[in-house]
Specification:
The complex is a heterodimer of chains A (112) and B (113). Chain A has 112 residues and is mostly beta strands. Chain A has one domain (3-92, 104-111): Immunoglobulins (Immunoglobulin-like, Sandwich), CATH 2.60.40.10. Chain A has strands at residues 3-6, 11-14, 19-26, 32-38, 45-51, 56-59, 62-67, 72-77, 86-93, 100-102, 106-111. In chain A, strands 2, 4, 5, 9, 10 and 11 form a six-stranded mixed β-sheet that branches. Chain A has a five-stranded antiparallel β-sheet with strand order 1-3-8-7-6, with no helix packed on it. The chains are: A mainly beta (112), B mainly beta (113). Chains A and B meet through strand 5, strand 9 and strand 10 of A and strand 4, strand 5 and strand 10 of B.
């Protein structure tokens, strides 16, 4: 069956360190992988999109990698800040865009 | 900055009643999505529209849920009759193109008693 797995346990890190979140998938052939941030009681906010033919994407303190052989994406936040505390969701979509699937999310807490 | 609008923000209803949610996407966005999110889980796609046409409703419980986007702009999601298990956050999102980044509204928190 198709499955998208993210770090099942909450991640706690010290301010200033790099947070690394994992998204693993099985039985998908995604053309795009996206990362979103979600704060409690609010809708997700788009962060980054990476295509299947791209290995890495960066935006300010954020970096995403996409390994279609390992079927895995890693999401990094460098120089983390308490304001980065939130739930982070990965999402896959196919070439047609007609199928869109979210993972369960990873809760990140950055400790001052 | 343009935003996706949803209403109501909160809804409490008794089981077996009908409930409806409304979404107004960002102007010019052809693709509109409805998701259901249970606490602690990721959003689950219920239905996707391209303009006024449904392109994916495979996860929509069609015996009780219906969705429409008559003029290809705003959209309504209806549940009739509501069941206790329908309690969740209902999110609407829009994007300028399929597979592109999605912009989410604030959601409607539904509680069925």
């Amino acid at each position: 069956s198709q499955k998208i797995e993210q770090n099942s346990e909450a991640l706690n890190i010290q301010e200033g360190k790099t947070a690394t979140l994992t998204c693993n998938y099985t039985n998908y052939s995604p053309a795009y992988l996206q990362w979103y941030r979600q704060d409690p009681g609010r809708g997700p906010v788009f962060l980054l999109l990476i295509r299947e033919n791209e290995k890495e994407k960066r935006k300010e303190r954020l970096k995403v990698t996409f390994d279609t052989t390992l079927k895995q994406s890693l999401f990094h936040i460098t120089a983390s800040q308490p304001a980065d505390s939130a739930t982070y969701l990965c999402a896959l979509s196919t070439n047609t865009g007609n199928q869109f699937y979210f993972g369960t999310g990873t809760s990140l807490t950055v400790i001052p | 900055e343009a935003e996706v609008a949803q209403s109501p923000r909160y809804k409490i209803t008794e089981k077996s009643q009908a409930v409806a949610f409304w979404c107004d996407p960002i102007s010019g966005h052809a693709t509109l999505y409805w998701y259901r999110q249970i606490l602690g889980q990721g959003p689950e796609l219920l239905v996707q529209f391209q303009d006024e046409s449904v392109v994916d409703d495979s996860q929509l419980p069609k015996d009780r849920f219906s969705a429409e986007r008559l003029k290809g702009v705003d959209s309504t999601l209806k549940i009739q009759p509501a069941e206790l298990g329908d309690s969740a956050m209902y999110l609407c999102a829009s994007s300028a193109r399929t597979s592109g980044e999605q912009y989410f509204g604030p959601g409607t928190r539904l509680t069925v008693t």
